[in-house]
Design brief:
This protein is mainly alpha-helical. About 40% of the residues lie in helices and about 5% in strands. α1 (about 10-20) packs antiparallel against α4.
Length: about 290
């Protein structure tokens, strides 16, 4: 592995020449290159220096010594991209004034290219390089006209009618509920809903009463039969079924659901009466 890497600029070329001229195994060199790429990616992901840890390396770390420091040229490559030893400590520091992302990004590309050419690695073996952050020079406008798909742009007026907090959804997307008192009393809409529910319950009760049947026990029976709704009941031999008639008075003036239910019951009773008056006939009798 004594081939010179002629296309690389010093001092990176010297570091890689030392790496490939050594007696290190290809697997160890590939491990060192992969680790160096990870260090570079950490720096590229933090272009503004918010995380100082990505610019500090503990040279006494066992993993670092095994993966990078033990391979000739590993430390020299880090020095080539701007790292330096911090005094007499064991820390390698990348100073911001020595940090040039263009050079660091080029150093990463060199590592990937050499690994593919010299070690027969695949490009897919390495992660995609972090994209450079784009800093906008345009001053931020006042926040009112910019469209944000994740921000609510509707003012919930229905919530105010139903008693919910009308300011929970603000046109600006901000929660202003703390600026307004909460609704604790029953609103007109809530009362109307309760009244509608009550009317429906009363209509259902009237429907059940119109379909209920009263059993008149015969002389041979001392116990009346239990009453069942929906026109279902049990009769003993000799007992008669009496159903209360549905008069027109039940539907006069009735509006809404109650009137509809009463009209339906009346029609059903009239149809049943017609069938009873027709009598029982057989096919032979009709012929």
């Amino acid at each position: 592995m004594s081939d010179n890497v002629a296309t690389m600029a010093d001092p990176l070329s010297s570091a890689l020449d030392s790496m490939f001229a050594s007696s290190a195994f290809d697997a160890d060199i590939l491990t060192a290159i992969t680790t160096l790429i990870k260090y570079i990616d950490g720096i590229l992901k933090d272009p503004h220096g918010a995380n100082s840890r990505v610019r500090q390396i503990n040279t006494k770390n066992a993993a670092f010594r095994r993966r990078v420091a033990s391979v000739p040229g590993g430390l020299e490559f880090l020095f080539g991209i701007g790292f330096k030893m911090e005094g007499e400590s064991t820390e390698m520091i990348l100073e911001r004034n020595r940090e040039h992302h263009g050079s660091i990004r080029e150093a990463r590309a060199i590592l990937v290219r050499v690994a593919c050419e010299k070690l027969k690695a695949e490009l897919s073996d390495f992660p995609v390089a972090p994209r450079p952050s784009v800093t906008s020079t345009v001053t931020a406008p006042t926040k009112q006209m910019d469209f944000d798909p994740y921000r609510s742009n509707l003012y919930n007026t229905s919530a105010a009618v139903l008693g919910a907090d009308p300011t929970g959804i603000d046109p600006t997307g901000e929660d202003r509920s703390k600026d307004f008192p909460q609704h604790t009393t029953e609103t007109d809409a809530e009362r109307k809903v309760q009244e509608m529910k009550k009317k429906v319950e009363e209509a259902e009760l009237r429907e059940q009463n119109s379909f209920s049947s009263t059993i008149i026990p015969s002389s041979s029976s001392s116990n009346p039969v239990a009453v069942f709704d929906r026109m279902l009941c049990v009769l003993r031999p000799g007992e008669n079924l009496v159903t209360p008639p549905v008069t027109a008075k039940m539907t006069d003036g009735a509006g809404g659901d109650a009137g509809i239910i009463a009209s339906r019951a009346r029609r059903m009773q009239e149809e049943r009466k017609k069938m009873e008056d027709a009598g029982f006939t057989t096919k032979a009798m009709r012929e």
